[in-house]
């Protein structure tokens, strides 16, 4: 990769970022590590065919993250350290903030977070693997669980706590009454998700309550007609994965929380705005590394299976 920016507009943005860093008094000593890190990103954009910063989307951001993971060190052997990758992502976050403050772009884009040795906890599925799970589901409960965990991106605790009254089929919204940090939010459903949830309510849930406690409020109920626990719901997911008979998929050790990360990735890949993803998942921030003050952004439609 060359180390000089050819694009005049990118050079202008680099100058603006240089002023941004200095005004905020980021300690760099005699080095230009923030600026040099941004130069590498801008040069990568040039080589990827991006000539205007407005063309930069979440898809390119994710590809750059994949490039960083595989990039060799400039000195010594091996690839970039965890610390170096996190710094590159931090600089990207500052650059995004600078772009938005200067109104260079209207909508923010997704910047992945990096957990280093903890990738297993953030294992995700491809769209094709999600489709395989739906295809191999054996009943309406399994399809409904996929629809809430993946299609709505709910946390395991939120799925277990979900009540029947929280699924608003008339308005196409799922109400999470007490999410993380006791925050309430409403999550939009796609037509596909609504169809699966409606079928589960009308058919399987009613059958499970037959002759039992008809006043049970829980949305997901076990064979005894009681609220399903998060552990029970995870066991159902594991059974569904085994039903695919896909060895690679089974080896991934997927949990309900992995489905939540999967929908976040798929939304980002389809260029959903960062603010929409943040609200959809119920995050205070889209990832724990950066803080973005994004206001009054246009809400984009759901892009999901």
What does this structure look like?
By secondary structure, the protein is mainly alpha-helical. The chain has two domains: 8-114, DNA polymerase, domain 1 (Orthogonal Bundle), CATH 1.10.150; 122-279, hpI Integrase, Chain A. The protein has helices at 8-23, 33-47, 58-70, 82-101, 127-136, 140-151, 156-161, 191-209, 230-243, 247-251, 256-269, 274-281, and strands at 167-168, 173-176, 185-188. A hairpin with an 8-residue loop joins strand 2 and strand 3 (185-188). The protein is elongated and about 75 Å long. One of its GO terms (molecular function) is DNA binding.
Concise account of the structure shown:
This protein is mainly alpha-helical. It is built from 12 helices and 3 strands, in the order αααααααβββααααα.
Can you lay out the helices and strands and say which pair or pack?
Layout: H1 8-23, H2 33-47, H3 58-70, H4 82-101, H5 127-136, H6 140-151, H7 156-161, E1 167-168, E2 173-176, E3 185-188, H8 191-209, H9 230-243, H10 247-251, H11 256-269, H12 274-281
Antiparallel strand pairs: 1-2, 2-3
Helix pairs in contact: 1-2, 1-4, 2-4, 6-8, 6-11
């Amino acid at each position: 990769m060359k180390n000089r920016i050819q694009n005049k507009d990118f050079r202008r943005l680099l100058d603006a970022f240089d002023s941004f860093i200095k005004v905020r008094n980021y300690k760099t000593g005699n080095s230009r590590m923030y600026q040099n890190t941004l130069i590498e990103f801008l040069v990568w954009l040039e080589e990827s065919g991006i000539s205007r910063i407005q063309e930069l989307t979440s898809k390119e951001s994710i590809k750059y993250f994949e490039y960083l993971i595989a990039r060799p060190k400039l000195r010594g052997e091996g690839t970039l350290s965890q610390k170096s990758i996190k710094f590159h992502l931090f600089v990207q976050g500052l650059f995004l903030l600078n772009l938005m403050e200067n109104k260079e772009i209207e909508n923010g884009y997704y910047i992945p977070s990096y957990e280093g040795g903890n990738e297993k906890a953030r294992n995700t599925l491809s769209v094709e693997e999600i489709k395989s799970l739906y295809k191999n589901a054996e009943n309406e409960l399994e399809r409904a669980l996929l629809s809430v965990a993946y299609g709505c991106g709910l946390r395991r605790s939120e799925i277990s706590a979900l009540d029947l009254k929280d699924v608003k089929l008339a308005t196409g919204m799922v109400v999470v009454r007490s999410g993380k940090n006791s925050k309430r939010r409403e999550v939009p459903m796609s037509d596909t998700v609504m169809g699966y949830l409606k079928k589960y309510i009308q058919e399987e849930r009613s059958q499970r309550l037959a002759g039992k406690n008809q006043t049970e409020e829980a949305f997901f109920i076990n064979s005894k007609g009681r609220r399903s626990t998060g552990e029970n719901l995870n066991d159902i997911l594991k059974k569904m994965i085994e039903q695919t008979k896909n060895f690679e998929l089974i080896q991934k050790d997927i949990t309900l929380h992995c489905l939540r990360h999967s929908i976040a990735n798929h939304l980002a890949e389809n260029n959903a705005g960062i603010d929409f993803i943040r609200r959809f998942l119920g995050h205070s921030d889209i990832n724990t590394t950066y803080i973005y003050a994004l206001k009054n952004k246009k809400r984009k439609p759901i892009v999901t299976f």
